[in-house]
């Protein structure tokens, strides 16, 4: 087993100055020489004082979990109490179709709750599954049921991962 019995200390002799935009010169910092103690390996340096005593090891580690700030919980409780008395602010009811202007009707048809964008998004999402399912049926299920035969047999894994030589 290898153990180090000498203590090494370093100290900064100067800190770097704050760089100025109009100057191009920078101050550098230098380190004091490293001093090693030779006092029998007991960890005491030549001056006889230990610059940083080792921290005592703690036997247990305390971990506390915070469930949320007390202020936030109190604010939520206060809002719930006030909401019960005054009623929660509800969204304004949607306008009747007859009361809408032409621009409002166009916007509602395009981006409304069940507008054009809603249905296009649903169709795009469903078409992903339709295309993948169709490919699986065409590529694997049709030939396995001898409904038709593909022009070329499936590639073997060795030829698939081989270079294009």
Q: Structural class given helices, strands, pairing?
A: mainly alpha
- Mean pLDDT over the residues: 75
The helix-strand sequence is EEHHHH
Low-confidence blocks of residues: none
Strand order of the largest sheet: 1-2
Number of helices: 4
Beta strands, count: 2
Tertiary shape: flat
Largest sheet: 2 strands, antiparallel
Rg measurement, Å:
38 Å
Percent of residues in helical segments?
25-40%
- The oligomeric status of these chains comes to single chain
Q: How far from one another are the termini?
A: 57 Å
Strand residues, percent: under 5%
Give structural notes.
The chain is mostly helical. The chain has a domain at 112-154. The protein has 4 helices and 2 strands. The protein is flat, with a radius of gyration of 38 Å. It starts with 7 loop residues before the first strand and ends in a 5-residue tail after the last helix. The mean pLDDT is 75.
Short overview:
The protein is mainly alpha-helical and 165 residues long. It has 4 helices and 2 strands. The model has no long low-confidence stretch (mean pLDDT 75).
Write the layout of secondary structure elements.
Layout lengths: L7 E2 L25 E2 L33 H17 L15 H10 L4 H29 L12 H4 L5
Antiparallel strand pairs: 1-2
